[in-house]
Write a structure and sequence with these properties.
Elements lengths: L2 H14 L1 E3 L21 E3 L20 E3 L20 E3 L20 E3 L20 E3 L7 E2 L10 E3 L7 E2 L11 E3 L13 H4 L5 E3 L7 H4 L5 H15 L1
Parallel strand pairs: 1-2, 2-3, 3-4, 4-5, 5-6, 6-8, 7-9, 8-10, 10-11
Keywords: Leucine-rich repeat, Repeat
GO cellular component, one term: cytoplasm
Pfam families: LRR_1, LRR_8
């Protein structure tokens, strides 16, 4: 892509606060974007070939939305964690194995999508995020859900298409968790904490495609309590 095309995009972005450049084969984050560090509210560089998100991302202190789906990122810089206004972060379809240690400092974050990466566990850093609503960790390599998950503030947690065979009973203690998606994992029925049914806020539990028949789930103690929550929620949205 020529400099003139980039210049035109930058001029538009200066007026709109939105910089969108998708599917252009970019191998590097455009350094010229720094000039707009105080203007930009949204950056979308999806469907490119970027391997590195440079530390200068930390300069975009007014950024609310960062979309980098389908690139080749293997790591994220600690500087990303300086973005105190960031509400939406989409990183689907990259090669991420972990999150920066200070990720919990993204205090405004509401939506986080990390589908189709190489995460092996539910990152503990997520538990510090008080405004998190939706977390998508589907299509990773997660094998178990640790005790720390009990502190997660999210309303929806998507763990579909992982390799999960163990879930901490602490997941029942998530204060705001209403939707838990665990489809297509490696769960035996005995490994599904019954407290999810009998003693949690969860009103939508999706567990199709595991190592048990759904009708067996209905025989578990607490299933009727879960169905009460499920039905009440359905009525609310009907």
């Amino acid at each position: 892509m020529g400099n003139s095309a980039l210049k035109a995009h930058l001029e538009t972005a200066q007026k709109t606060g939105v910089f969108q450049l998708t599917g252009k084969g970019l191998t590097e984050f455009p350094e010229d974007l720094q000039k707009l560090a105080s203007n930009l509210r949204t950056i979308d560089l999806s469907n490119n070939k970027m391997e590195i998100l440079p530390p200068l991302i930390g300069k975009f202190s007014f950024l609310k939305s960062l979309v980098l789906n389908n690139n080749k990122l293997t790591a994220l810089p600690e500087e990303l964690c300086k973005l105190k206004k960031l509400e939406t972060l989409h990183l689907n379809g990259n090669h991420l194995r972990q999150l920066p240690a200070a990720f919990g400092q993204l205090s405004a974050l509401k939506t986080l999508s990390l589908s189709g990466n190489q995460l092996r566990t539910v990152p503990t850093q997520l538990c510090g995020l008080r405004h998190l609503d939706v977390v998508d960790l589907s299509k990773n390599q997660i094998q178990n859900v640790p005790d720390t998950v009990g502190e997660l503030q999210a309303i929806e947690l998507n763990l579909n298409q992982n390799q999960i065979s163990q879930i901490s009973v602490q997941i029942s203690h998530c204060p705001r968790l209403k939707v838990l998606r665990l489809e297509e994992n490696c769960l035996e029925l005995s490994m599904l904490p019954q407290s999810i049914l009998s003693d949690s806020q969860i009103s939508l539990l999706a567990v199709e495609g595991n190592l048990f028949e759904i009708k067996k789930l209905r025989e578990l103690e607490g299933y009727d309590k879960y169905m009460e929550r499920f039905t009440a929620t359905k009525k609310k949205f009907a």
